[in-house]
Design a protein that fits this description.
mainly alpha; 3-stranded antiparallel beta sheet; 15 helices; 279 residues; globular; single chain
Length: 279
Amino acid sequence: MGILDFVVNQAKKIIENNNNNNNNINNNYRNKNYNNNNMLVNYQRDKFNKEQVIALFLNSMSYRPHKIGKNNNDDYPGYLSYEYNILDVPSFHKEMIELGYFKTADFKNVISRYKVDELKALLKDSQEKINKLKKDELINLAVKTLDENHKNKIVEESKMFELSEEGLKYLETYKEFLNIVDLQKYCISFSLFMDYRKKLPSYSTIRDVAWHILNERLNYYQKEQQFGMYRNVFLQMANFLDEEKKSINALYYYILIMYFFQQNEKKLTTILPVSYLTN
């Protein structure tokens, strides 16, 4: 028996054992008839209300300071208009500032967007030796040594804004919603998630529901003998487990994917994981 066969057999055993011991999703709630195939296997864009769109916009702007864009959407990520239906993103940005969800960016956060050469130019008059300093060290040196008037001028000229306390509170209120929307990376829309959540026990977590959807999708593609899509769901499941730091189980899934590449379609029916594996 080769090493790949051994690993695959061990993966099968782990999957079977976890299937037998799984208590996360009650089998009585499984949708065996696949009554929702259209949403299950055909990703559809969601229609969000204004409050949800605000949360999505604030979240997209939360990672670093931003200027207000010009009179078009080119200065912003394309998904803001395509996915969230914000037709005029600069105007929407201005509206969020007026509502108090943004404030003038802090000096340190403004210069964090500088390149190393720009930071060194900013510190050219410094008495410190800056040639061998890393970016974080240059930023900290600028914060420590530049006078307040110079800092204020840089902030004013940058015209950058970052989330205010009010904006951060708004994001916290919509934290669960944003975690659900983040499942789009697994081709799970918000509407699909909410549809399946209604069918599952109330104690099911967001990750439980998402794993259940991936299993339902896997079952569907196995039933329809769609090899490529079946394998793609395995990759999504491997990434899902890897994201949860369940490295051992994720590794088995990745290995199974490589194994499937070497097999024909009929071999796929021999392995069908349907539970939420745990380390």
